[in-house]
Amino acid sequence: MAPRTNDQQSPAPHAADSHDLIRVHGARENNLKDVSIDLPKRRLTVFTGVSGSGKSSLVFSTIAAESQRLINETYSAFVQGFMPTQARPDVDVLDGLTTAIIVDQQRMGSDPRSTVGTATDANAMLRILFSRLGTPHIGPPGAFAFNVPSVKASGAITVERGDKKAVKATFSRTGGMCTRCEGRGTVSDIDLTQLYDDSKSIAEGAFTIPGWKSDSWWTVRTYAESGFLDPDKPIAEFTEKEMRDFLYREPTKVKVEGANLTFEGLIPKIQKSFLSKDRESMQPHIREFVDRAVTFTTCRECDGTRLTEGARSSKIKKTSIADACAMEIRDLAEWVRALDEPSVAPLLAALQQTLDSFVEIGLGYLALDRPSGTLSGGEAQRVKMIRHLGSSLTDVTYVFDEPTIGLHPHDIQRMNDLLLRLRDKGNTVLVVEHKPEAIAIADHVVDLGPGAGTAGGAVCFEGTLEGLRASDTVTGRHLDDRAALKNEVRKPTGALEIRGATSHNLRDVDVDIPLGVLTVVTGVAGSGKSSLVHGSIPAGEGVISIDQSPIRGSRRSNPATYTGLLDPIRKAFAKANGVKPALFSANSEGACPTCNGAGVIFVDLGMMAGVSSPCEDCEGKRFQASVLDYHLGGRDISEVLAMSVAEAEEFFGRGEASVPAAHKILRRLADVGLGYVSLGQPLTTLSGGERQRLKLATHMGDKGGVYVLDEPTTGLHLADVEQLLGLLDRLVDSGKSVIVIEHHQAVMAHADWIIDLGPGAGHDGGTVVFEGTPSDLVAARSTLTGEHLAAYVGE
Prior knowledge:
six-stranded mixed sheet
């Protein structure tokens, strides 16, 4: 065999090796102002800047969006017809792009049958494992799936092959879905006394359902004149057949005053009209009715496991699939590691890798049967990361949106290691981030600003971390900010007593939450903070809870409509001009008839990206021309909606345009740091931090003495945290009690009282490991939080 020779001379660089930059020129998406920038490939680039400065517009709406659009265009037109269409971002040149994998903060689907196991394919592998090794053997993998119902059918089918011939066929499929709860784990019981007063007849107005008036022909008259019921007989005196028809009858066509209508039993009608909707999107009085009329209880047949008795009876080493899914993932990983079965070795290896990824990423405290809709934004983002950790792909662009959200300082180092590992495999990692600990690991930093909204959208700095620290940008100046411990803390005016709390992983916790002060509940992710605060504090009168659930709204929704600000403004315009308030709504009588108040015309091009262009009739103003002739304080309604919160606060605060009700809402929006947002900006274009602060501003007007906030620093720049602390102080000084679930050390240092949960996550947590002032916590250093807070304040 001939010896191998090596040419030691270094050849000229190959042309293919020269493409080591992602070039962006002339980006104008959202508030970006002709941004041009070159980003190094196979490096970790962190994007910083105040909330609303344009970070997400550059990273997600421009770079990642164009990468995904170009990949979609490689598929056939037939396949593209089934995919979401994406328009090309507003940018002149995008060069050097690689395949983008987006790992964002979007909450995972809240479908009741979606769990951590189904979202990560761990359940799919477990089902195959039990179908091969489980005893007794009950069927294929579908027999262990709570999303698959059992089906049996028989009959004649005609096979069109040569001579047509009818053949008798039977079909059966064994599924794992519990028949009573249909794979949900809980069943809803409807309290009939909340639907009607059985001492009255239908004609006398027996229904107590919101919107069901005694003369509404489409509901009440259908029941009264269907012919199935006696409308003049009290419901309590209905016969058994009448009661069955009244409550449960299948949809049946009936004639009412010559019109064809559908009569349906009351319970299925309520389920379709109320229970099929998302609770958060309901109007307050409807939500109150549903909460009163419907109770959710654990299914007695499957004991909340969602599975049939057959699926629960098949076991491996005395463990059923329901037992496996209920284990904490770190315990399940050990159970799988102990299985030694060569016949399914590749399956066990893949399942083991997935479960180990959960543990490595700090989610070992979760269970596979945890509903995915209950995960926090940070947990959801880390669950999405799992499928990429063991990937063999290289030269991929990974895009992360604040991956440290929801992480205790103790866990941020672990997240940093994972990001660096992805980079070291030869990938480009782009991270939008505010935390100094995460910015510290960047190879390249891009700072956007200088302000937010129209005051932002420009690149203020790009270079190294040391260069950023030396620069005079907002981020550079605040990078080393540290909140100091208070010399004096407020004295509590009372206490909220929690006794014997056992929700989720809490271990019979007794704790007194002081009132009249700023209380911070902290601890590592999964230690039981949310279970203690949201699960144990009664959400009754006087408790205003502001969580991280997303704001739902279409592109027609904006800060003015969401906060209720538009109502007093419309009334003021109507009063000043002697016309109806409905004229000043782009969703009602005042809407431009050409674009129906949208301001743009959408053209659907099938599998191509749809085209939107400003409406030529209203020029994007959304209103009829006649409506714009009416003025208040010299401005028409479209000019008012184009104002920023700060401008509008001044405009409605004095002079002939003074509207006290509107001014009060605008002052709250300015207080939470949203002075730069325009009143008519679509909610869909707001960042995550902006949406949470909008929600906070809305609830600040509610009547209540106790505010419960869930990580209000999410999406906040270092410079904005100081403003948030000032807002919390003002709330407490006005006589409110503020309870904050938080990981940010600045909020901990500023607290009057700290409740620290731990010591670990999952079954290693669930106990109160410290109660006291921040100074005592730093002095004791008895917990992980104490150690990190001491390091933060420099003691």
